[in-house]
Give the backbone structure.
Amino acid sequence: MKLLVVEDETRMVELLRKGLAEEGHTVVCARDGSEGLDLVRNYEFDVIILDVMLPKLNGYDVAHQIRKEKISTPVLMLTAKDAIPDLVYGLDSGADDYLTKPFAFEELLARLRAVKRRAPVPQPTKLQVGDLVLDPATREVSRGGADILLTRTEYNLLERLMYRPGKVVPRRSLIEAVWGFDREIEENTLDAFVRLLRTKIDTDHQPKLIHTVRGVGYMIRAEARS
């Protein structure tokens, strides 16, 4: 599973990162609630492990905002507060389950499996910008009814852009979404793949869909013919 750990205690972060990685999970960590919320908004995770007592934005507020924004990723809340009103408040804020500190690592793993099983299976829907259509279920892409053959990297890049039509996707967000958090990818590599993608998507087609936002990133947007 791809897991987001939002925890500010250094020792706990390192224990969770090491233990979960040894179990074969991909682990991304945030040290405060604001950073955690930004990661949830920009990336897809299987489960969020969310501490309650966090700097900048506490875990209750993060969970509440996630649900307010219709993000359905399961949330396992960690808390040192074991009073019933605190646990109820956490669940009402949007958490799917809770685990009180201190806890056994085996119980954490079991609860992660449980909340993942209970999560609704998303039904992929076709993404469309102008006459460009991408089907996440089949990974097929077409424009104007004509099929477009993309490499795996080109497809992943286009899919990330099409999930946020009309919005700028920062360069670093694209690199991490396409190549992962644990690889050092140069920004000129991203630019090279965007050029390849433009050749296949925008050459011989109007309007141009892939736009550069200088100093920030890229976006996909249909513009009217001039």
The longest helix spans residues 187-201. The CA atoms of residues 124 and 173 lie 22 Å apart. The radius of gyration is 20 Å.
